[in-house]
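U., I forgot to send this yesterday:
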Amino acid sequence: MPCHKIEVTEYECAKCTYRWINRINGKDGPKPTRCAKCKRWDWEEGYLSTIQKRLRRDLLKIESVETPHPTMFGGGFNIVPTDLCASFLSIYPRPTVKELETVLNPISYLGPHNHYGFRNHRGTCTELIDCGPGWIPIPGSYRYDKEIANEMERKEEEIRHELMQHIIHSRGGIINTNSTHYAYLASRKAIAEESSKFEPSKMWQAIAESKGQEEEQQGKQLEEGILPQKQNQYQKRWERTDPIS
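Result:
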């Protein structure tokens, strides 16, 4: 029997280090969507480090919008990441720690600044100069200027969006739709869309109808079963206490 040497593609899971090949009818099959052993979607991404989780969480706090929706007891809102932020966090390969730090503190892209107080990013910003948005150093303290703060935040947001878009383009615009992070961000958006379609009046009507059906069913049970039993009990008690009989 003739022997042939062939080249195959071997896949390795970054989560469980399992290795496998994917051949179908003697040919390399498509790229797997899950690990053959642990069945994870993000098998080629590996685990997020502690600082990556913190940086991604801080970015979600900044790049999120509140979408209002009606509730049965008034109004509520869902916090949903912007489309640009969701795409940025889902690119492949994932954003590096340096890229996340730059996007979180875009002003430092032009010069070192430090955000603290109500805009503190917990050490993600540079600390070379004591300068925050709207905080002006004065002898022995700082003075807050709201107009300067608003202007710096507007400029910061503009630069942040440009940087995120630039990093997305540097990855060729590849979005890993199989990752658990993408699924999580997409689920938050789907929940917000479903919540906006909620109609409290229909829910109250459904509750009232369900309560009416339950009361009607209990009434039928009393008439057919429980009520005759009580009547028989009263009849037997009357017969025992009737002096004529």
